[in-house]
């Protein structure tokens, strides 16, 4: 059975492709290799994935609806894992139309292609913990049935719009769908705009790091292998025709930003020079996943601690940068 994965050269997409291929499954990948961050990293991820039998990654903008529909039709894929998106909260203040194209028009393009496809068994798509808006740091875990009508950023608003479009198409056309609200993924092959990646580069270079929210923020850091466990668990337990489900995919152990920095300092063997700055527009105080729904579905149980996960990232980062 072929699976079509959008955003296949992205951070999570790369790891999903690798996991599917390791199970002997055929993967048709799609990515536009845009310049939001260094396309060379995306090309490298794609090259690594395409070494595996049965993996082919195409260069294509998912918002090009006719081209994407033709690719899905010709691929013969029976499942779609839609991970392509314009990520980043702060960048949405600079390039709002990039979010409209990727996260709204792109989702509509995928939905229309899935509606027209014959024999489609399921669509699993990426949402984000950002849809929950800003919550107090000491609040309870975020549940899928919580209200999500106060987005703190355009990024969050577009991801919630994607959920609503998917819900509508599922009901209208009987499409089996599952949306995954990812919580702060990190790990090897990560995105260079993420805090842990930026901090590692700066600390090793002897440069100061910008600590927004004066370090009072907390994040539900989730190692990428645990994220992929959640994706595969949902794929292996598909929705019924016309069913639209939502799942949190997180670690369910929020960690203060300063504690994460302390862990990096220890792993890198160097202190960080911190510039303490106020919260930035669009940022939220905390993220905290209630994962009970996903655990009930497939036994989801995140295993990698932040200490171990960051150690794996640091080892990868040193090897990747030393290799040029």
Which key phrases capture this entry?
Rossmann fold; 324 residues; alpha/beta; seven-stranded parallel sheet; 16% strand; two-stranded parallel ribbon; single chain; globular
CATH class of the domain at 2-183 and 224-250 and 289-302: Alpha Beta
CATH architecture of the domain at 2-183 and 224-250 and 289-302: 3-Layer(aba) Sandwich
* Count of distinct strands: 13
Per the CATH scheme, the topology name of the domain at 2-183 and 224-250 and 289-302 is Rossmann fold
The helix-strand sequence is EHEHEHEHEHEEHEEEHEEHEHH
SSE layout and pairing:
Layout: E1 2-6, H1 11-22, E2 26-31, H2 39-50, E3 55-59, H3 65-75, E4 79-82, H4 96-116, E5 122-128, H5 154-173, E6 177-182, E7 185-186, H6 195-205, E8 209-211, E9 218-219, E10 222-223, H7 224-235, E11 244-249, E12 255-256, H8 257-268, E13 274-276, H9 292-298, H10 306-322
Parallel strand pairs: 1-2, 1-4, 2-3, 4-5, 5-6, 6-11, 7-10, 8-13
Antiparallel strand pairs: 9-12
Helix pairs in contact: 1-2, 1-7, 3-4, 4-5, 6-8, 8-10
């Amino acid at each position: 059975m072929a699976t079509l994965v959008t955003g296949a050269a992205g951070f999570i997409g790369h790891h999903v492709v690798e996991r599917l291929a390791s199970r002997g499954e055929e993967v048709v990948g799609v990515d536009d290799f845009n310049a939001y961050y260094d396309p060379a990293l995306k090309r490298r991820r794609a090259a690594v994935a395409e070494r595996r039998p049965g993996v082919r990654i195409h260069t294509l903008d998912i918002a090009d609806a006719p081209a994407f529909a033709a690719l899905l039709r010709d691929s013969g894929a029976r499942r779609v894992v839609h991970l392509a998106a314009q990520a980043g909260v702060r960048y949405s203040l600079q390039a709002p139309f990039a979010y409209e194209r990727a996260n709204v028009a792109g989702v509509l393009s995928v939905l229309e292609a899935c509606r027209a496809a014959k024999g489609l068994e399921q669509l699993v798509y990426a949402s984000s913990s950002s849809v929950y808006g800003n919550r107090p740091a000491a609040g309870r875990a975020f549940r899928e049935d919580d209200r999500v009508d106060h987005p703190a950023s355009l990024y969050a608003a577009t991801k919630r719009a994607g959920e609503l479009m998917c819900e509508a198409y599922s009901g209208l056309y009987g499409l089996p769908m599952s949306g995954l609200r990812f919580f702060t993924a990190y790990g090897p092959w990560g995105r260079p705009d993420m805090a842990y990646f930026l901090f590692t580069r700066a600390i090793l270079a002897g440069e100061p790091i910008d600590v927004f929210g004066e370090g009072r923020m907390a994040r539900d850091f989730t190692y990428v292998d645990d994220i992929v466990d959640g994706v595969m668990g949902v794929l292996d337990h598909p929705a019924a025709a016309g069913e639209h489900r939502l799942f949190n995919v997180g670690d369910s152990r929020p960690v203060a930003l300063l504690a994460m920095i302390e862990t990096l300092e220890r792993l890198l063997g160097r202190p960080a020079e911190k510039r303490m700055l106020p919260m930035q527009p669009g940022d939220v105080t905390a993220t905290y996943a209630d994962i009970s729904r996903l655990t009930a579905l497939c036994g989801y149980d995140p295993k990698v601690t932040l200490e171990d996960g960051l150690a794996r990232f640091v080892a990868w980062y040193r090897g990747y940068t030393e290799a040029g």
